[in-house]
């Protein structure tokens, strides 16, 4: 695997290193030893998949509040998404900055998102499946989120939103919050 630093501290794009032969190829998608070489010691405990039927479906931006923060390793296994992450660690040099990545079943790129980030994606095609590993079990009481259209974030989504959950359409704006985000 090749780890490509992003503009945001501690977040990486993870490129596969396929070993090809007559049958096709083989590649590792997660390897504790390779991750630890660059200082990632994530202990993944749950794997999730989501299916979105329509192009323009938006999920996020989600995080679990500290101490239930989770590292995530995201992969689009069918179709294509733009994945958007926001660094919400108050002591980080890239605090409140966001970055957008195109993850597709063709480029097979993975995105490593550390705890203390809000995470979201928008589907660019119909019938999209996203698979991801997380390091913390689902803790609904610590669930939180940022609004995809919060002017304080200024995210330029590539498509109009076609489908969004009520929960995601109604997260409070950053200007309406007190205290630390994470
Ligand atoms: C995240 C999650 C949800 N659920 C349940 C709660 C609910 O009934 C149903 C759908 O949940 P949600 O609406 O939160 O699903 P979704 O909006 O797809 O949530 C996901 O969004 C992306 C962007 C992330 O980063 C993920 O960590 C996760 O928060 O699944 C679990 O049982 N376990 C889980 O780990």
UniProtKB/TrEMBL annotation:
| Enzymatic class | isomerase
Q: Which molecular function term from Gene Ontology is one that the record holds? A: dTDP-4-dehydrorhamnose 3,5-epimerase activity
Q: What is its EC number?
A: 5.1.3.13
Q: Look up the record and name the pathway of this protein.
A: Carbohydrate biosynthesis; dTDP-L-rhamnose biosynthesis
Q: Which GO terms describe its biological process?
A: dTDP-rhamnose biosynthetic process; polysaccharide biosynthetic process
Enumerate the InterPro entries for this protein.
RmlC-like (IPR000888), RmlC-like_jellyroll (IPR014710), RmlC_Cupin_sf (IPR011051)
Does the keyword Isomerase feature in the UniProt annotation?
yes
Keyword Electron transport assigned: no
What reaction is this protein's catalytic activity?
Answer: dTDP-4-dehydro-6-deoxy-alpha-D-glucose = dTDP-4-dehydro-beta-L-rhamnose
Site feature Participates in a stacking interaction with the thymidine ring of dTDP-4-oxo-6-deoxyglucose, where:
138
Q: Which residues form the active site?
A: 62, 132
Give the domain of life.
Answer: Bacteria
GO cellular component terms? cytosol
Query: What UniProt keywords are attached to this protein's entry?
Result: Isomerase
One matching Pfam family: dTDP_sugar_isom
Indicate the segments annotated as coiled coil, or none if absent.
none
**What exactly does this protein do?**
Catalyzes the epimerization of the C3' and C5'positions of dTDP-6-deoxy-D-xylo-4-hexulose, forming dTDP-6-deoxy-L-lyxo-4-hexulose.
- Assembly: Homodimer.
Similarity field: Belongs to the dTDP-4-dehydrorhamnose 3,5-epimerase family.
Record-linked NCBIfam families: rmlC
Q: What is this protein called?
A: dTDP-4-dehydrorhamnose 3,5-epimerase
- Which species is this record about? Billgrantia pellis
């Amino acid at each position: 695997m090749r780890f490509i630093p992003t503009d945001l501290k501690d977040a990486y794009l993870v490129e596969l290193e396929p070993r090809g032969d007559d049958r096709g190829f083989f590649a590792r998608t997660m390897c504790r030893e390779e991750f630890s070489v660059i200082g990632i010691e994530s202990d993944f405990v749950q794997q999730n998949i989501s299916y979105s039927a329509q192009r323009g479906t938006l999920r996020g931006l989600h995080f679990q509040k500290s101490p239930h923060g989770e590292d995530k390793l995201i992969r689009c296994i069918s179709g294509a998404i733009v994945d958007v992450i926001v660094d919400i660690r108050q002591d980080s040099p890239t605090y409140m900055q966001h970055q957008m990545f195109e993850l597709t079943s063709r480029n097979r790129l993975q995105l490593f998102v550390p705890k203390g980030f809000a995470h979201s994606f928008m589907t660019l095609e119909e019938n999209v499946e996203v698979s991801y590993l997380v390091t913390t079990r689902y803790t609904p009481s610590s669930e939180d989120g940022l609004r995809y259209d919060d002017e304080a974030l200024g995210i330029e989504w590539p498509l109009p939103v076609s489908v969004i959950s009520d929960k995601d359409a109604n997260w409070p704006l950053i200007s309406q919050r007190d205290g630390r985000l994470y």
